[in-house]
Specification:
CATH architecture of one domain: Alpha-Beta Barrel
Distance between the termini: 33 Å
Number of strands: 16
Radius of gyration: 20 Å
């Protein structure tokens, strides 16, 4: 057995063959064995949500993390600072659950914006409450938002989310654009027999308002574990449903971004550039080889992949009095052990125990 840095008096024991600090290459980046370097940090600020989307959680909700297990605002700020100042992170995205429910959100954003070098800051939200928070978030230093919206039909929205809040999401989108949190992006998940007929209407809505639409393949991250590869709406299905728009491939490389993008002829975005639509084919068009993300859960666990089945505890190090250097090393060890891909097509694939709402996007 080998030891990773753990809370004082309680070293974390890992199995033989697991990465340890002695295995790490020289440097201070979040590198892995396959040459990838994580520079994009996704921070889940809470596992709580005010919607009950059918593809995410059951109608009665889930058992939320006890408050004492969640990172405090100061702990979140410290980990973000270590990631930026010591580990080369250049982009921080706040996620949930629903991150707008975090009471200390504005202060956390402000703290991250004060770091040097300053990371790019964004948030992924369901948009409820964004109408009143968009301007304060911009003032705190937030750069951009992604808003989840799976339908333009308010009745269908209520069915999908089990909440009658469609108008609130639209108000949040408008407020984000007015506050300058641009480009305002919409995240949409299409589901067979539910809203897979809405791709054209959603794109027309986005084009009309100057938003950038991103379709995302449904992933095996639902709390109910009912995801079925054979019934999911694929990236190919989505593109076929948008044939009327005569999309053309975007000549700009996506780099490490997860979305493949297409230009929409005859349309211009609010920034004056040609309008675009993106498709994130996490399942059928995986981009694991270019992944640059590291994830921090609301209870202080590092996940080196969205679909990882194990985690590395940083909360214990924080509360055990360990130094920034110890925490940075543990984080590097966690990322060094990242697998080459998510393995969804592998017969041995196991869905993570945590659902998306407890991981963060």
């Amino acid at each position: 057995m080998s030891e990773l840095p753990g809370p004082i008096g309680a070293p974390q024991i890992v199995a033989p063959g697991a990465p340890v600090a002695d295995d790490l290459p020289a440097g201070s980046t979040l590198a892995d064995r396959y040459g990838r370097v994580a520079t994009d940090l996704r921070v889940s600020l809470t596992d709580r949500c005010n919607l009950r989307c059918t593809y995410c959680m059951p109608e009665e909700g889930l058992a939320w993390l006890p408050r004492e297990q969640q990172l405090t605002d100061d702990e979140v700020n410290r980990l973000i600072r270590i990631a930026v100042e010591q580990l080369g992170v250049t982009e921080v995205r706040f996620t949930g659950g629903e991150p707008l429910l975090r009471r200390g959100l504005l202060g956390i954003v402000q703290s991250a914006a004060a770091l040097r070098p300053r990371p790019r800051l964004s948030i992924t939200t369901n948009g409820i409450g964004l109408d009143r928070l968009a301007a304060p978030l911009r003032d705190a230093g937030l750069d951009r938002v992604n808003v989840s919206l799976d339908t333009v039909d308010p009745v269908r929205f209520a069915t999908l989310t089990r909440r009658d809040r469609h108008a609130d999401v639209l108000a949040g989108l408008r407020a984000a654009a007015a506050a300058g949190l641009t480009p305002v992006k919409i995240n949409t998940v299409l589901m067979q027999g539910v809203n897979d007929d809405e791709a054209p209407a959603l794109l027309r809505f986005a084009l009309q308002h100057g938003y950038e639409l991103r379709f995302i393949e449904q992933m095996p991250l639902d709390a109910q574990h009912r995801w079925d590869r054979h019934t999911m709406v694929t990236a190919g299905d989505i593109l076929q449903s948008l044939a009327e728009f005569d999309l053309t491939p975007d000549s700009v490389s996506r780099g490490t971004a997860p979305a493949e993008t297409w230009l929409v002829p005859g349309h211009v975005g609010i920034d004056g550039r040609p309008a675009r639509v993106g498709v994130i084919g996490s399942v059928t068009r995986p981009f694991c080889g270019d992944c640059d993300r590291t994830r921090l859960t609301a209870d202080g666990q590092v996940r080196n992949c969205l679909f990882a089945t194990d985690e590395s505890d940083l909360r214990g190090l924080l509360r055990g009095g360990r130094s920034d250097d110890d925490i940075a090393t543990a984080w590097r060890v966690a990322m060094w052990g990242k697998k080459p891909g998510h393995g969804i097509d592998n017969p041995s694939f196991l869905q993570p125990a945590r659902p998306m709402s407890a991981i963060g996007g």
